[in-house]
DNA sequence: TCCACTTCACGTGTATACAACTGTCGAGGT
DNA sequence: ACCTCGACAGTTGTATACACGTGAAGTGGA
């Protein structure tokens, strides 16, 4: 747990009133997403308690919830750690999200209120602006909000909440496996294109948009060299 | 919380050693599935603690986990209750499961070890026997195990664990909305048919099997009359 | 008769104390 | 130099005490 993060959290908390487990969940989730808490970071209960000014009871509840969201790993008698999905799980998460978000998009197409479509357009536009301004955190924020909006308005709320979970998980692995030197994972035009088909009511086109979007996104990731066979080889050859 | 259930739990626990939160989760889940704990049942922390011989700390953790599994409802400052999904959520759960289990079946087809196929056949056969013997609890047990086996061996483990969740949730609503007087929700031949296509490797046929199976299952449920409009009518007409 | 208010039992929210476990570092023997 | 074992510090597991919130029954008045 970096101390710079501690200070930021303190600042954010100090103003508000009391802290609940939900606040801790949000803060930690956000910190993981923003890579302030890199995968593998230790999250001892007492330390978190001190940072947030609450006792272990509250922290424990928050950690349990974070574990059920697949954000942290909680094993018996061991410190909770920020989860670090391997490349296989990353691929599986993407294809699961492809299935679910594709279906949600197809179901949603043509059934969205104008109000929501405008909100989507707003997010897409702001994301573009943030990208042009090189403000990556803000860009991510709007991109996430875009997809969350879709999940929230899914006619099938069960699929919607599954999608919410998958959006979080893919965001984490994107942060983890983003190619070095790549400033942003912005894909110009993808979101507006999806909006167009959602508005016109072409469900299958919307599903295809999602598939294309996620495939492109996965392409920006560095998932290649870390195959299990290669790993084994490099270990046996005596690296390090 | 019925007291008959308490006695059963006591019996099951007394023999074993210490109880962990996982044990409580399993027991409660099972009791809900078997309709020993009808929807809406109150689950006070102290009472559960007494039943299982542990303190509230352990019970709280178990309840939090059960809430994340959608088995119980946990609202601030109120007793946890066994969840009672409405008919809309029931339909949505079924169609979500249709999407996910269909995909898992398609992915799995032709890629299963012989060992697993034999296990599946075994479960299907035992389910049939239990049905013929009119032993509904055992039948449900094998039916659940059948689908869980599929979920466990999904090549995509993310989808697999999502399926595990959906199997549980559909089982709960089946117990809830099963047509009165219907002894069993057994569908002769569905499982063997699926196995055939899983073995032959015909993914699309397997997907269709799942869809057909779930549609039939949903047809055995009493989801019609309880529409919100009808409910309102029956209330206004003054029936007790 | 009905409504608003008070009171109280019940149950959860939070903090804290102590027991039990895990990994690590160092001493001692081989 | 290496391996083994034991003690210790750090952390989680569990139980318990007290504070606080909620809903229901009872009470008084219009």
Automatic annotation (TrEMBL), chains A, B:
Keyword Transcription regulation: yes
Stored InterPro entries: GntR_C, TF_FadR/GntR_C, Tscrpt_reg_HTH_GntR, WH-like_DNA-bd_sf, WH_DNA-bd_sf
Domain HTH gntR-type: 18-85
UniProt keyword terms in alphabetical order: DNA-binding, Transcription, Transcription regulation
Molecular function GO terms recorded: DNA binding; DNA-binding transcription factor activity
Superkingdom, taxonomy of origin: Bacteria
UniProt KW Cell membrane keyword: no
PANTHER family referenced in this protein's UniProt entry, alphabetically: HTH-TYPE TRANSCRIPTIONAL REPRESSOR NANR, TRANSCRIPTIONAL REGULATOR, GNTR FAMILY
Protein name: Transcriptional regulator
